[in-house]
Each structure stands twice: as C-alpha cells, then as structure tokens.
Amino acid sequence: MFVRTIQECRPPGFDTPTAPCYDKAMSGKHVLLVAPYIHDFAAYDLWLKPLGLLYVAAAAEAAGYSVRILNCLDRRHPAVTSSPGPSRARNHPHGTGKFSWEPIPKPPPLAMIPRRYKRYGIPLEAFRNGLADGPPPDAIGVSSMMTYWCDGVGETISLAREAWPGVPVILGGVYASLCPDHAREHAGADYLVTGPGEEGFVEILRSIIGKGAGPRADSDRLAGSSSPREARFGMTSVPAYHLLDNLDSVSMLTSFGCPFACAYCASKLLRNGFIQRPVKDVVEEIEYYVNDRKIRDIALYDDALLVKPDDHIKPILREVIAEGLQACFHAPNGLHANMIDEELAHLMKETGFATVRLSIESIDAARLKDSCAKVTPDGFKRAVSCLLAAGFEIGDLQAYLLMGVPGQQESEVKETMLFAHEMNTLVRLSDFSPIPGTGYFRAATETYGLDLSEPLLQNSSVYPYLVPGLADRYKRLKELARSLNTELLRHTENVL
After folding, report:
1. What are phi and psi of 10, to 5 degrees?
2. Where are the beta strands (DSSP E) in 395-453?
3. Is residue 243 part of a domain?
4. Pairing with 328, which of 20, 43, 451, 458 sits 20 to 30 Å away (CA)?
5. Would you say residue 491 lies in a domain?
6. Is residue 228 part of a domain?
7. How far is CA 451 from each of CA 152, 403, 435, 457, rounded to the nearest angstrom?
8. Mean pLDDT by 10 residues, the chain (496 residues)
C-alpha cells in the first residue's frame, strides 16, 4: 500500500478555502493544473513532460472534475516558436530541444555562482493569458520537480494567485514531497500533497469544492475526444495527454517505483514499493500514442525498466512487434545492464530503441555496494556485447557515470570512464546532486560540513562550488570525457 500524506498549510492572509473572490456555492467543478517554470543555470528538454501532473489530471477527470492544463515548459507554444533571438526555444529531432528562456536575477544563496541565471519556459505574458483563458477554476493544482527548482514553483503560484485571487492552490510533486517544510513556508500553496498525488489531490478537491460529477458515461467520455481510445485513456490511470497541446513526443511509465534503494536516489522516498503494469495495458498505451496520436518518439522513464525482463519488458516488446507498432523508443534513465541478454538486445533493436543509456556509475567495489550491486563490470561488458551483436553501432550506446559523490576520488571516476570507453560506449557524466533523505545527502553534509537545507543548494550545478576544488575536478573530468568520446566517434567513422 502506498503512503499518501496530505498536509494542509495556509500562508499569511489565507484563513479558509472560502477567502475573498472564491465562492464555493456559486462555483462549478473546474480544476486548473499547472506545470511550473524552471529557474536554473541550465535546463534542457529530454522528453520532459509533466507526467505526474498528467496522472493527477486523469484521476481528477475520472472523479468527475473538468480539468485544464497549462504547461509553462511547452517548447512548441506559439508564443515561443515565433520568438527571435538566441533565447528562443529550439526543437531538435526525436522530441528533444532547448526551452525558451530569459535572464533573471540570482537569488541570494546563489550569488557566488559565476553563471547566468535564467527562467525557462513560455513568456510571462503568454502564461498570464493562459491563466485568464477558460472557465474560472475552483481549484488550482501545481506540480513540482527538482527540489532546487522551488523558486520557479513559487513564482508560478504567485502568478496564478494574481490571476485568480482566493482560489485554493494545491502543491504536489518531488519538491513538495522531499522538502515539505520548506514548501509550506515558501511556496505559497494552501494545501500540500506528498508522495503519489492522484488520490490525495482528489481527496483535497472533494473537501474544498465538493464531489465531482462522478465517472461519466461512455457517451459523455467521447465528447470532445478524437477517438474512443483517447477518451478511455484520458479517464483512467493512464496520463491525460489529451489535455496537452503541441506534442512531438511523450514520456510514459511501464512501472511505478523501484525495487532498489541506492544511496544517491530518492525513488523509495517518493513512492514506496514497486509495481509493474500489466503487459496488455502498456502495449495498448503505446498503440494509442503511435496510431491515434501519431507520435513515434516515446521515452520510457521507468526507474527499473528491465527488472524481471522475462515477465515484463520482453513480452511488451514482443507485442509491439506483433502489433506492427512503429515507434522510436528512448531510455533516458540508466538501464540496468546486468539484465540485458541476447534476446532482450535483439528485441530492443527490432522495436526501434534509439536512445540507450546504460548505468555503470562506478567500477569501484564500495560504490557498487552503494548502488545495490545492480550493475557489475562483467554484466556491463556482457550487455554491450549483446547490444552490438544485435545491430546497435558503436556510438549508439552511452554509459552513465557518477561524478562528485562525497568522498569520491578523481581516480575512481577516471578508471570508470576508461572502462566504459574500452567497452565502446560513449561516456556520459552524471553530476552528483544531494537529494534530501538519501544516504549520500547525509554523507555530503557530514563529509564537507555543508548545510544543504536550502533547496537551491541541492542543485548539481551549484554543488561543485560548495566543495573546495570540486569545480576544477569537474572541468578536468569533462575534458577527458569529451576527448574519449571524440576518439571513439572518430574511430567509428574511420571504420565505416
């Protein structure tokens, strides 16, 4: 059973959900959901969709509420695609790209960072226009991702309050779950949902605006939907992508949670337990995206996509082949290489995996233990061999390596980089980010005497400036990674 904790918080000046400008007796059942802005030194769209918000939207619709979504990170919003200059959004092949941005002042905790700070997302005017569009909301839900993007969350909530004063605001997501005390004090929301948000969000809606109309009849579900499949998926536990415009790719989950408890990861803190969805449901969702929505690029964002491969991912990929679904799959999270055998490698190749990132993290024995020993050097070697034999080319495969872990020596990272290079994989360094509640977060505070209670300091872009000498070490390691990758690609070109 998943643990869902609902905490109510009222900022100064907000006493009850019936504050001025909000009259529950006269309201309908309209819910506005918002994916907030990012405030950071860097941000790039790797199939980043507000997946948690889309699941919440599906749950709210299933409970009978009318739902509308505003996505501040929409790269294809008309207000950004027509914008000139270097700060405009850029759409790259296969559903990735650069967000539009504008420079903003650095908050005081980040004043020492020698980099330009930015707001990523659609222009503020476009967001304000979007807020004013549509029926007056009875409640506003805001999602949150990285803890250190908290200022973007706060700004988004402030803008929503300007547009709809007195309408209760509900905050959920990663930041709300990992830094609840900070969120209560600084975000400006009225209600906080921690952990998986679907059930908790609907409970709060029922308590502040009453029950929804209830699950609608099938004939009603078809209203405004392009197909029965779209209507059905929009009203179930599958993310409500029918509420998003301008889609060039989708992200999806074939499972929830993770069976491992790695020292650097917060998966166990965000969702207790591990559940793999039925194969039939996963394949039907893929079929909907490919056939109904005409989307080919699908990012599988599972934390543990390959766990129990014979019962899960292999049957899924076999059904994709049997149904003739022409998709382009991407695995942006590190795949557990130990679970890739010859059959799975061939299935991945045949079903169109275009982005294959393997998790190696480190070849150091102690570090492997901190990673639950889910990937070993021998397992990594075997996986790469199977993938290359299946038809993947040198240059197609990337290896995730951890860099900057508390107490980690530069030599450990170099040895792992050279190992990955020798295995004919591109080196992809993963900068350490201290995530509250994890073992490595505690190690970072104890090893370096840091106070990381301020979420802005939990940023992987900020962390190297907090640890003496780490920024210079990063620079050397990144130069080595570029050199190794250039050498590998050049060798590949010469062979071809």
Report:
1. -120, 115
2. 397-403, 426-431
3. no
4. 43
5. yes
6. no
7. 22, 20, 13, 9
8. 36 32 52 98 95 95 95 92 74 90 96 96 96 95 98 98 97 97 98 93 95 53 37 57 92 95 92 93 96 96 96 98 97 94 98 95 90 90 98 95 95 97 96 96 95 97 96 97 95 62
